[in-house]
Amino acid sequence: MPNVPNYKVEIMDPEKKDKLIGEKYQENISYGRKANLSGTCIKLLTNVEKFKEMWEDNFKSMNEDVRPHGRIFALKTGDEETRVLYEPISKTCFLLDCDYYGYVKSLALAVSGDFLEEYHSIHSRHSVHRAAVDYRGIGTAIIAPSGVGKTTQAYGLLLEKHVRLIADDWFYTTIVGNGVDVQASEKNCYIRADIASDIKEYGELLEGVSLDGFGRTVTNVRRVLGKTTMKENTTLRNVIHLKRDPDDEKILRKMKTDEAMEYILNNDFCNPHRLVTDKRKRKLRKEFFKKLYERTDIYMVNTTASIEENLEQIKDIALER
User: Fold this and answer.
1) CA distances (Å), origin 38, targets 69, 109, 113, 310
2) Residue 320, CB half-sphere, CA atoms under 13 Å: how many?
3) What is the pLDDT of residue 1?
4) Most buried of 63, 106, 162, 170, CB within 10 angstroms?
5) Which residue stretches of the chain have pLDDT < 70?
6) pLDDT given at position 112
7) Closest CA to 27 of 61, 77, 84
8) Rounded CA gap, 227 and 175, in Å?
């Protein structure tokens, strides 16, 4: 499987953004599609047909009459280097010369998240980059850095009766009083093919589908697990963090708010797709996560054990066994 390209975000001013659109890239745009991301309207503008098709499969559409809250220009320009540029005032992002749809969708969600962080109200929404499931109205989030088993554990939980997927990669939250409401971000999931090597039940999910150059595809998990597999929202009760530490013999333990805050800050909010990372933004995110942790039960699971053993520990939490 090819390596996913790396990028760093280049912040630009409105004048440069206008110049790039008007003088350089306007004529390159072949397709425009709007997505409804938790009530925000994010518009894709691209000259890559595959991006347009995967976007339509991935996200719920937004009425064309709604003015975009943010835009992402995903364009092939002929240059060899992948670049990401962002203009924060108009929430305009450029993803240039990248073949990886995963960045298109992640940056769209990041633009939406950046907009929501700036929109303060009594029911402010925030985005979280990681997974969430529902069990009989009880929500559990799995928050961790990449590579420690978050996706595998989330999909393992889905095999249990009455467990439903809210999000496998990114979800939205609204803090209301002492509660935390969680909303789905995607209509269908952008899933990696090798999930079937960890959980054999998902082999059928990938039969007959076309994978992109990075071994992934947008697919409907309802096709294998049933029409009720996915759910739009839940009330969050549990937050599970993951780590992979062979020096720690304990697989599962509870965490206090201060310890969870240290974890999330040390791991850059477990979100490599943040567009603006200045001191002010860091303060906003710290305040949000503190409120989130104060309203939930927090756990740490060490994923050095087998997938099956770790999943049993996570089931004990999410299924309240």
Assistant:
1) 12, 10, 10, 31
2) 12
3) 42
4) 170
5) 1-5, 120-123
6) 96
7) 77
8) 29
Overall size of the chain counted in residues: 321
Tokens encoding 147: 């590579």
CB 142 within 8 Å of CB 165: no
Question: Domain 125-318 classified CATH 1.10.390.10?
Answer: no
Instruction: List the chain domain ranges.
Output: 9-118, 125-318
Non-local (6+) Cβ contacts of 308 within 8 A are none
Q: Return the SS3 of 19.
A: helix
218-233: b (≥16 Cβ within 10 Å) or e: bbbbeebbeeeebbeb
Q: What is the model's pLDDT at position 56?
A: 97
For the purposes of burial, counting CB atoms within 10 Å of the CB of 283, is it exposed (0-12), middle (13-18) or buried (19 or more)? exposed
Residue 247 DSSP symbol: T
Strand arrangement, sheet containing 92-96: 9-11, 83-87, 92-96, 70-75, 40-46, 31-37
Q: What are phi and psi of 91, to 5 degrees?
A: 55, 55
The span from the CA of 258 to the CA of 46, in Å, is 43
Q: Which residue has 């995110």 as its token pair? A: 285
Q: Using an 8 Å Cβ cutoff, are 246 and 148 in contact?
A: no
- Give the integer Cα–Cα distance in Å for 177 and 172: 16
Please give the model's pTM, rounded to 2 decimal places. 0.92
Relative to beta strand 189-192, strand 92-96 is unpaired
Note the Cα 311 to chain centre separation in Å: 21
Q: What is the CATH number of domain 9-118?
A: 3.40.449.10
